Structures are given as C-alpha cells and as structure tokens.
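Thread title: Can someone regenerate the structure for this chain?

I was given the following input by a collaborator and told the matching structure tokens would be attached. They weren't. Posting the sequence so someone can regenerate them.
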Amino acid sequence: MSQPERSGRGRPALLFALTERADSVFPKRYGQLATMVLQEVQEMGGPEALDEVFARVAARHASAIERDFAGLGFDEKLNRVVSWIGRAGTLVEQSESPEGVKVTIHNCPFRNTALKFPQVCTITPQLISRLTGAPVSQSDSIHRHDPYCSFVVQRPTDP
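Best answer:
Regenerated them for you:
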C-alpha cells in the first residue's frame, strides 16, 4: 500500500507500508520466541515456575470454555473436549481402554517446544481433567520419543 507524502520541493514521494496480507508471507519465528521466553522463565524460577506457567495456561483455556460444559454428562464433556482439541489443529481420537477412555494425539502442535520443555505436555491432561472432572494420566508422549501422545481419562464410577 502506498500513500503520497509531502516532503518539500520536487516530486511527491510515496510512503510504502506492508498490508497485513503481505506481511503474512514473510517468515515468522513465534516458536523460537516462545522457546527463548520459556528458557528465561526456567532460569529465573526453575522448573517449578514453568509448571506454574503451564498450569495457568491450562486453567485459562478451561475457564474460557467450561460454561459450555455445564449440565453435561461425562461422555458428552469428553467428546466436546476431544472435538475442541481437534479444532486446535491436532489429529486426535478417543477409544475405550481397560483403564478408561484413551485420548490419542498424533501430531503435537507444540512438538519442538515440548522436546525442550516437557512441562508443555501438562497442558492437555490438566485441561481434560478440569473440563471433565475426571483424573487423567499420560501414557505416551512424543517428548519421550513415543510416536504420539496419549492420555487415559478415568471413567467415573456410577454410585
């Protein structure tokens, strides 16, 4: 985009600026910035500081959508959480297992960061647990060089 700019005598000069669309074609380094920030957080406060950061991230995401879960049963809540995770850009599936419901994420959108900061992997189980009210454990993890991440959500026992 250009617009004329007055600068005294002579021909009018044009002032050029990138549009949002044009700017989007240039490389972005958001992952690199996130990694640098997390490194600083860890150096300032240790691993506990990172644990707190990721717990807050999970809580913030959960609180933004938990009102949509009010009054739903366990299966409906879990289906919504899995659907929400899928809409965030992951290939996710759920299946029954002897321990509960297994949620498998085949592609981690935070893979490079998680390889350096495994605390990233706590966001998903905390989010699932908070939104379903059920305990969640991680059974597979890309950061431990498994082919995917999986979580077991314990099905509530009926009274």
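The chain has one domain: 22-153.
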